[in-house]
Structure formats: structure tokens, C-alpha cells
Amino acid sequence: MNASLTPAQTVGPFFHDCLLGDRLAANAEEGGERVCLRGFVYDGDGVGVPDAMLECWHGGRFARVGTDAAGVYTLITIRPVRGSSLTRAPHISLAIFARGLLNHLYTRVYFPDEALNLSDKILLRVPADRRATLIATRDSGRPDASEPTYRFDIVLQGTGETVFFDFK
């Protein structure tokens, strides 16, 4: 008899069936700079996760977006602006849900051209060699887009893993 490992099994995901809404977290009448945040959600083998869900929020804005068959998500929102804090950089908070995750993951998206990144107390707690996993890059890959596009890939584990925060 040859013993082998029992295959892993998880429930779901059911995100695409009932939880996903509009990928737009901004309406046309709202002021502010509209931006597109776009990227991949990768598993530990570098393969796109086709059925992940991201909850995105900043200020009073909220959206749920899912990944497509290649693991790509797209969110159009208003770029966060500096609030009353002189040390907190504008950012978008994300919660990531995907198969195999018993608990969802939390991370942040910072913008590359933001001066407050240099004094953000949360960003500065992240080791310098890992901070890049929290900073989006400007992407010129959407010539038809009316808004600036930023690329933010999420790596769930392994080489280049995105920094995730443990909120208790």
C-alpha cells in the first residue's frame, strides 16, 4: 500500500456568484482625481488567482472587485488625499479573500509620488527591503484610459510576498 497525502480542500470561493458589485468606487459627479488601480493576485507559484475578491476602502469609499480568469482586478476610484494628519500618507486599504485562506489578508496601497510616504508611521515600520510591495507603480499600459493607472500586484506567498498586516 502506498500512502499519499490527502488533497487540501477548502469551501468556496463563492465571491463571483453573489458578493461582487461595481468596480467603481467613485461617481461621475464626485470631485477629486479619478485613478485606476489594476494588478494581479498571484498565488505562491506565481500563477494568477482567478477567483479572488478584494474589498477596497479609503475615506468614505468602498468597493468589492474580483479577479478575472487570469487573476487581474481593476478598480476605478478617487485618489486618496492628505487628511488632517501630517504624517499619514494617503493610501487605499485592501482586504483579500481567496480560496485556501481561512482568514482574509489586509494590506495597503501607497502611491509612488507621495511625499508623505517618507513619514508614514505604518509604512516606516515595514522593513525597507519589503516596502516596495506596498507601493503601486505608475502604469502607462492603458492608452485608452481617461484616468491615470497604477499597477499594484498582490503576491499571496513566496518570493516578493506582499506585506500583510495583522489587525487584532
Give short descriptive properties of this protein.
single chain, 168 residues, mainly beta, Protocatechuate 3,4-Dioxygenase, subunit A, 5-stranded mixed sheet, 4-stranded antiparallel sheet, globular
Would you summarize the structure shown here?
It is built from 2 helices and 9 strands, in the order αββββββαβββ. It is mostly beta strands and 168 residues long.
Characterize the structure shown.
- With 168 residues, the chain is mainly beta.
- The chain has one domain: Aromatic compound dioxygenase (Protocatechuate 3,4-Dioxygenase, subunit A, Sandwich).
- 5% of the residues lie in helices and 29% in strands.
- It has 2 helices and 9 strands.
- Strands 1, 4, 7, 8 and 9 form a 5-stranded mixed sheet that branches. The protein has a 4-stranded antiparallel sheet with strand order 3-2-5-6, with no helix packed on it.
Give the H and E element order.
HEEEEEEHEEE
By CATH, the topology is: Protocatechuate 3,4-Dioxygenase, subunit A
Largest sheet: 5 strands, mixed
Terminal residue distance: 46 Å
CATH class group: Mainly Beta
* SS element count, helices: 2
Rg on CA atoms, Å: 17 Å
- The CATH architecture would be Sandwich
CATH superfamily: Aromatic compound dioxygenase
Strand content: 25-35%
Low-pLDDT segments, ≥5 res: none
Number of strands: 9
Number of separate structural domains = 1
Structural class: mainly beta
